[in-house]
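Sequence decides. Our protein:
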Amino acid sequence: MTILTILAVTVTAIFMVIQANGNWEYILPRRGTKVLAIVITGGAIALSTVVFQTITNNRILTPSIIGLDSLYMLIQTFIIFSYGSMSVAMINPNVNFLISVGFMVLFAALFYKVLLSGEDNNIYFLLLIGLVLGTLFSNLSTFMQVLIDPNEFMSIQNRMFASFNNVNTDLLTISIVAIILITLYFYRFLKYLDVIALGKEHAINLGVPYHYVVKRLLFIIAILVSIATALVGPITFLGLLVANVTYEFMKTYRHHQLILASILISIIALVGGQLIVERVFTFTTTLSVIVNFIGGVYFLYLLLRER
């Protein structure tokens, strides 16, 4: 844990001061805002992925399988398809943020309410339905995208990939407040995760209120994914990458250590990746492209290793 903390601080410090050339008053606020967005996004994705994999007992699944990323793109596409790229919902980032998070949380609440209303419902049934709905949302988005004006499509294309280059300060304030509140609520369920990792039957036999805890953890996951996606855009493989690197690095089952380590690894990956994008590739590519490329290769490695 100490090594990860030192690495995270070192990478962040390099990102803040490199090539500043003494223009501290101009450089530090802008880079500080970007680092803050990275910390919020990385922390939300890492926490949601580790908890989701614990619930499902599967280390190659991420919350995106439920379809929240596809729903985010469907919301953005529908707004432009119906009202155009100059509508208030697209121009005002606060309105767009609240609409996106609101619909994604509402979808998750209805989704879990319907599918997990009984005591006998299986978590894998929820994942299967989530996968089907995610495909449906993605196809609906594609259908509307081929019908709109090419100039309007450019606005959607800008939201298909995560971007830390133009972070709105007002969105950071809302995101920080939401993350603090949801983290405080999550803390009361942290003690159950080590037991839930043993499996549903073992957790119930050991006295864990399994269905009550899992429903609330899934709701927390939905909010975290919604905030991270609405803040910077979808990053498909980041959660898979940081969660599995955490398992390999930490070699422990204690979730208070796993979650903290995954957040630090996520910050290292995102800050280091953004540093490479800005100083090596000089903004010719985006961070999400690098993360998804490395994460995709690692995903194939995990699949081949489990054969």
In short: The first helix runs from residue 2 to 17. The chain is about 75% helix and 0% strand.
